[in-house]
Amino acid sequence: MTASSTSLFDSSFVIADTSARLRARSGIVVAQWQRAVSARQITTCPVVKLELFHTARDANAVEAIEVEERAFRSIPITRSVQNAAIGAVRELARRGGGYHRVSLPDVLIAAAAQDVGADVLHYDRHFDRLAEVLHFRSIWLAPAGSLS
Protein backbone atom coordinates (compact mmCIF):
# COMPACT_ATOMS: atom_id res chain seq x y z
CA MET A 1 0.00 0.00 0.00
CA THR A 2 1.35 3.38 -0.96
CA ALA A 3 0.16 6.12 1.35
CA SER A 4 0.38 9.79 0.45
CA SER A 5 -0.68 13.04 2.01
CA THR A 6 -3.85 13.17 -0.10
CA SER A 7 -5.09 9.62 -0.33
CA LEU A 8 -4.93 6.16 1.12
CA PHE A 9 -3.44 4.61 -2.00
CA ASP A 10 -2.31 5.49 -5.50
CA SER A 11 -5.39 4.24 -7.37
CA SER A 12 -7.99 6.46 -8.94
CA PHE A 13 -10.71 4.43 -7.23
CA VAL A 14 -11.28 1.17 -5.40
CA ILE A 15 -14.14 -0.99 -4.32
CA ALA A 16 -13.82 -1.11 -0.55
CA ASP A 17 -14.56 -4.65 0.59
CA THR A 18 -16.54 -5.26 3.75
CA SER A 19 -13.33 -6.31 5.53
CA ALA A 20 -11.93 -2.82 4.92
CA ARG A 21 -15.18 -1.00 5.60
CA LEU A 22 -15.58 -2.61 9.02
CA ARG A 23 -12.01 -1.66 10.01
CA ALA A 24 -11.78 1.76 8.36
CA ARG A 25 -12.46 3.60 11.59
CA SER A 26 -9.49 1.97 13.30
CA GLY A 27 -7.13 4.55 14.77
CA ILE A 28 -4.18 3.74 12.53
CA VAL A 29 -6.08 4.11 9.23
CA VAL A 30 -8.97 6.47 9.99
CA ALA A 31 -7.31 9.68 8.75
CA GLN A 32 -6.18 8.08 5.49
CA TRP A 33 -9.62 6.51 5.02
CA GLN A 34 -11.31 9.89 5.47
CA ARG A 35 -8.97 11.48 2.89
CA ALA A 36 -9.78 8.71 0.41
CA VAL A 37 -13.53 9.15 1.03
CA SER A 38 -13.19 12.93 0.57
CA ALA A 39 -11.25 12.33 -2.67
CA ARG A 40 -14.12 10.07 -3.84
CA GLN A 41 -11.75 7.14 -4.31
CA ILE A 42 -13.98 4.74 -2.39
CA THR A 43 -16.76 2.89 -4.21
CA THR A 44 -19.05 0.07 -3.19
CA CYS A 45 -21.14 -2.63 -4.85
CA PRO A 46 -24.36 -4.50 -3.99
CA VAL A 47 -22.42 -7.43 -2.52
CA VAL A 48 -20.64 -5.18 -0.02
CA LYS A 49 -23.96 -3.57 0.86
CA LEU A 50 -25.53 -6.99 1.51
CA GLU A 51 -22.57 -8.07 3.65
CA LEU A 52 -22.84 -4.86 5.67
CA PHE A 53 -26.58 -5.45 6.12
CA HIS A 54 -25.72 -8.92 7.44
CA THR A 55 -23.63 -7.30 10.21
CA ALA A 56 -26.49 -4.99 11.27
CA ARG A 57 -28.16 -5.71 14.60
CA ASP A 58 -31.57 -4.29 13.67
CA ALA A 59 -33.59 -2.22 11.19
CA ASN A 60 -32.10 1.04 12.46
CA ALA A 61 -28.61 -0.25 11.78
CA VAL A 62 -29.64 -1.34 8.26
CA GLU A 63 -31.04 2.14 7.67
CA ALA A 64 -27.80 3.74 8.89
CA ILE A 65 -25.84 1.54 6.47
CA GLU A 66 -28.13 2.60 3.63
CA VAL A 67 -27.49 6.26 4.43
CA GLU A 68 -23.72 5.68 4.52
CA GLU A 69 -23.83 3.71 1.25
CA ARG A 70 -25.38 6.68 -0.58
CA ALA A 71 -22.07 8.51 -0.21
CA PHE A 72 -20.32 5.99 -2.47
CA ARG A 73 -20.67 5.27 -6.17
CA SER A 74 -22.02 1.74 -6.60
CA ILE A 75 -20.40 -0.61 -9.10
CA PRO A 76 -23.02 -2.97 -10.60
CA ILE A 77 -22.91 -6.75 -10.60
CA THR A 78 -23.57 -7.32 -14.29
CA ARG A 79 -23.74 -10.51 -16.31
CA SER A 80 -20.12 -9.94 -17.38
CA VAL A 81 -19.14 -9.66 -13.70
CA GLN A 82 -20.93 -12.93 -12.96
CA ASN A 83 -19.19 -14.64 -15.89
CA ALA A 84 -15.79 -13.33 -14.80
CA ALA A 85 -16.43 -14.59 -11.26
CA ILE A 86 -17.31 -18.06 -12.55
CA GLY A 87 -14.21 -18.06 -14.74
CA ALA A 88 -12.02 -17.00 -11.81
CA VAL A 89 -13.26 -19.84 -9.59
CA ARG A 90 -12.78 -22.27 -12.46
CA GLU A 91 -9.20 -21.05 -12.99
CA LEU A 92 -8.40 -21.27 -9.28
CA ALA A 93 -9.83 -24.82 -9.19
CA ARG A 94 -7.43 -25.85 -11.95
CA ARG A 95 -4.59 -25.05 -9.58
CA GLY A 96 -5.77 -27.86 -7.30
CA GLY A 97 -5.66 -28.35 -3.58
CA GLY A 98 -8.90 -26.49 -2.86
CA TYR A 99 -7.29 -23.25 -4.06
CA HIS A 100 -10.67 -22.20 -5.45
CA ARG A 101 -12.31 -22.12 -2.04
CA VAL A 102 -12.56 -18.39 -1.58
CA SER A 103 -15.49 -16.40 -0.29
CA LEU A 104 -18.13 -16.13 -3.01
CA PRO A 105 -18.86 -12.48 -2.16
CA ASP A 106 -15.13 -11.77 -2.53
CA VAL A 107 -15.12 -13.36 -6.00
CA LEU A 108 -18.01 -11.13 -7.10
CA ILE A 109 -16.40 -8.02 -5.62
CA ALA A 110 -13.10 -8.77 -7.36
CA ALA A 111 -14.84 -9.46 -10.67
CA ALA A 112 -16.78 -6.19 -10.37
CA ALA A 113 -13.51 -4.34 -9.80
CA GLN A 114 -12.00 -5.94 -12.88
CA ASP A 115 -15.06 -5.00 -14.93
CA VAL A 116 -14.66 -1.28 -14.25
CA GLY A 117 -10.87 -1.08 -13.92
CA ALA A 118 -10.91 -0.56 -10.16
CA ASP A 119 -8.71 -2.03 -7.48
CA VAL A 120 -9.96 -3.69 -4.28
CA LEU A 121 -9.23 -2.26 -0.84
CA HIS A 122 -9.54 -5.01 1.75
CA TYR A 123 -8.26 -6.72 4.88
CA ASP A 124 -8.71 -10.28 3.60
CA ARG A 125 -6.16 -12.68 2.07
CA HIS A 126 -8.64 -14.02 -0.51
CA PHE A 127 -8.16 -10.94 -2.66
CA ASP A 128 -4.47 -11.68 -3.12
CA ARG A 129 -5.43 -15.07 -4.53
CA LEU A 130 -8.17 -13.60 -6.73
CA ALA A 131 -5.73 -11.03 -8.13
CA GLU A 132 -3.79 -13.96 -9.59
CA VAL A 133 -6.67 -14.74 -11.97
CA LEU A 134 -8.55 -11.44 -12.30
CA HIS A 135 -7.20 -8.07 -13.39
CA PHE A 136 -7.27 -5.77 -10.37
CA ARG A 137 -4.78 -4.71 -7.74
CA SER A 138 -5.21 -6.16 -4.27
CA ILE A 139 -4.63 -3.35 -1.74
CA TRP A 140 -4.49 -4.13 1.96
CA LEU A 141 -6.07 -1.47 4.21
CA ALA A 142 -3.24 -2.16 6.65
CA PRO A 143 -0.65 -4.93 6.93
CA ALA A 144 -2.20 -8.34 7.63
CA GLY A 145 -2.57 -8.97 11.35
CA SER A 146 -2.20 -5.31 12.34
CA LEU A 147 -5.94 -4.62 12.81
CA SER A 148 -8.58 -6.50 14.77
TrEMBL record:
InterPro entries: PIN-like_dom_sf, PIN_dom, Type_II_TA_system_RNase, VapC_family
Stored SUPFAM superfamilies: PIN domain-like
PIN domain span: 9-132
Keyword Magnesium annotated: yes
Superkingdom, natural source: Bacteria
Residues involved in Mg(2+) binding: 10, 106
Pfam family, one: PIN
EC number: 3.1.-.-
GO molecular function: hydrolase activity; magnesium ion binding; RNA nuclease activity; toxin activity
Cofactor needs: Mg(2+)
UniProt keyword terms in alphabetical order: Hydrolase, Magnesium, Metal-binding, Nuclease, Toxin, Toxin-antitoxin system
Family label: Belongs to the PINc/VapC protein family.
Role description: Toxic component of a toxin-antitoxin (TA) system. An RNase.
The name this protein goes by in its record: Ribonuclease VapC
Biological source species: Conexibacter woesei (strain DSM 14684 / CCUG 47730 / CIP 108061 / JCM 11494 / NBRC 100937 / ID131577)
Lineage, uppermost ranks: Bacteria, Bacillati, Actinomycetota, Thermoleophilia, Solirubrobacterales
